Amino acid sequence: MSYSEEALDQLDRGQLDKFKKAYASALRHDDDDTLYNLAEELYTLGFLNQSRRIYEKLLERYPEEDDIRVNLADIAIDEDKNDEALDYLNQVSEDSEAYVRSLMVAADLYQTQELFEVSEQKLLQAQALAPEEPAIIFALAELYFTMREFTKAIPLYLDLIKQGVPEFSSVNLVERIGVAYANAGRFEQAIGYLKQVHSGDMTPDVKFETGFTYLQLKDDKMAIQLLSELKDSDPQYTSLYIPLGQALVDENRLDEALTTLQEGLGVDQYNEKLWSYAADIAARVSDEQLTEQYLKKGNALDAEDLDIVIKLSNLYVKQERYQDTVDFLTNYVQEDNLDPQIYWNLATSYAQLENYDQALKFYQAAEPYFMDQADFLKPAVYFFREAGQREETVKLLQAYLKVVPDDSEMALMLEELQDDTY
Q1: pTM of the entire structure?
Q2: Mind spelling out the 3-state secondary structure of 108-146?
Q3: DSSP state at residue 368
Q4: At which residues are the TPR repeats (predicted)?
């Protein structure tokens, strides 16, 4: 037994002191090929310092061996020594047999730094030199998957499957294609692949994507089955609760949907989207107190979430809590890109509070966005008529009658205004 074999044997036995002695003896006595293999094994086992020491020793003896430089670059990346890794990789010339591999390692380095375009360039360069190499095709597909450029990733995964490679680096490519199709919004194609994955082999991510895909295809029963299984096996997978709630709502199982969202909130109480959707379901079961409670929780977590702001102010208006509406929305009216529904809610509230100057201001702000909505136009007509704004009233009446042409009362008002009888 060589000293390298003894060192690995001692590691396997958990005898670290004996490993260190055997490792030191290997450095002094084992031949270079045996040491190279030992370095590879130690790198795989996570003993980076020991692996690096061997490679550095071998590089001193064989300075022309670029494979060793690439191995040292790999170790440097694992140790977050990116500049050192680049130094090694830049020493590999284009005519070297290790050049393609150096490009792949460089691509990995740039991807860890989220320099995705540079990583893509390196992989495309490698692919041009070795177009049929599965490792390059897979690396490029995974990069595009990470970048969420799924339509670029799918053909590459399919290419590997056509080459007879259904799995690479423990990644099931059928799963990957299904998930990629789902994320690209091509749900029919997605389910064709995802259905091929045995339920016992599904990762939580794949089970979620499969359930979500069934939801998009309006197969609520399958969506509920898969997402419920995921909830039972991994309740911390918080992304499942909203789509599971949606599927239950579609099946008119509102009480179960609300319970599901409440379970999600028990897992993640800092997710404003969960509070918001739980409020939606509470509203569906006519529990306005719970609706308000959940919306306030969501607003406290993210005051900039305008969807929650609008839902809460809509509830206040519905409950005729006009001062609450004004107090709540006042902080938002100076924001850029404000949702026009806020103008409408403020206009309604100020009008009911008989603050007509402010009501006029916000009706005018809201008007351009709601000229095709009868619920806005009709109260606005009455407001502007009472405010003595004849031309504005006529304009709003004309817009209203385009939407509701058979409203005889409003038609008569328009006729009177146009005849100057008002």
Answers
A1: 0.77
A2: HHHHHCCCHHHHHHHHHHHHHHCCCCHHHHHHHHHHHHH
A3: G
A4: 238-271, 340-373
